[in-house]
Amino acid sequence: MKVKCLFCVLMLSVLLLISGCTFSNAGVEDGDDVLYIVTTIFPPYDFIREITDGAENVRVQQLLRPGQESHTFDPTPADMIAVEQCDLFICTGGESDAWVDVILSAVAGGEDKCVRMIELVEAVEESAADGTDDHHGHDHTHGDGAHDRDVIEYDEHVWTDPDNAVRITRALCESLCEIAPEEAARFRANTDAYVNKLVALDAVFQGIAQRARYRTLVFGDRFPMRYLCDAMGLGYRAAFPGCAAESEPSAATMIALIEKIKAEGTPAVLKIEMSSASICDAISDETGVPVLTIHSCHNRTAAEAASGKTYLDLMYENARVLEIALDCSAQ
Ligand SMILES: [Zn+2]
Q1: Confidence bin at 11 (pLDDT 50/70/90)
Q2: What domains, with CATH codes, occur in the chain?
């Protein structure tokens, strides 16, 4: 991993030498008045598009291509140049983009233009969910800087809570207003309008939590929905924590998930988009409950990108799934 990262930095240095570019501290190429924003994953890309809607000379780029897996993302030389050239760079700050630190350290002014989403909200430690116990997240801890992040593995999926999406959008708006003060009025008006939609989304999830007959979600998959579960006051069981790389749960984990569903009459077993349904299918065979898909919003598929799906679209689809998975039908 380290060798690969060193190679990345070497490649970046060579490419910048070849291209002969000179950059100001802000990372803007001389004479270039385009506001250039680069994000690693989908949610902040969507938030930035909302904030900058209608502004001219804005370029927003998401490094993950449609359908690409975020946890095995490997930046190309073109991606590294994008990070070097942009005015604002937004990443999660979590373990899946550890490569970011290596590139930023090689880029002049890199740290100054980097925004890490986990530092904009109340980040929590990655849950040790292994399917055998109910988890309820109340042990919030604060992510306050690089030092802590070296010691504690924070759950990076902060955008899954609409209230966090509000905080992230407002913070990104302020960053953009600093870089392009002439557009500040437009950015703030767009942000206010978008925040209203996020608040309405949050109210929908809170309404579901109130009507739910069940209080625990069972994931036969990885578990990137910790922040949404916390926001809704739901417990959870999952085959793996966070977006762990494992793909084979232990027999004890499988049995625990199956027993949980049988004992409580849980209406569904959940999988994440773009992951194999094999664990959920096995649980479904044993229990007879349907497999439903929750969208973690890390990224969009090619079809979702082509049809212009937004964070709000995907989260409203999640709301409809949760109405079934928590059984909101009776009231
Ligand atoms: Zn993840």
Answers
A1: low
A2: 2-118+144-197 (3.40.50.1980), 211-325 (3.40.50.1980)
